[in-house]
Amino acid sequence: MDNIIMDEERRYHLKQAVLWATVITASHFVVPSAAHAWHWLHTALSALYLPLIFRAAVWFGLRGGMAAGVGCALLYLGYLALRWAVGGSLNHDQFAFPVVFLFVGWSSGLVVEDARYKRWQRDEVIRRANAAEEARKELPQRELEQTTQTKGPP
Question: Which of 70, 76, 86, 143 has the highest Cβ tally under 10 A?
Fold first, then answer.
């Protein structure tokens, strides 16, 4: 049952990631790029990919962060290539965004994986402590049973 719920949850998160990547990319194409006056909005739209990459890392771990980073980098490079092909103005600093997307996907994925591992370690310590406590509680009962078997009933 948990696997079915998790699969539905993962599908939902994947749909959300694809939806937001599509909306951000489409917004790039809708906003005029011929005039430099709109450059600030394109920069803001580019920055909107970052929360998407963070969320993908939280939802899917390192692979999700990297996949989102690569996907957003490719979408953004596609936008830049088309913009350049039709004669729009380009700033060289715009080519830093794909590298930032890759770095954010990788680094946030590592942080999430590390947090998951630390949580697993904590849960394992708790599980072992609980098992040891249960064993300690059962010890006097076992000793009583062994004494009864050795000496016989009173």
Answer: 76
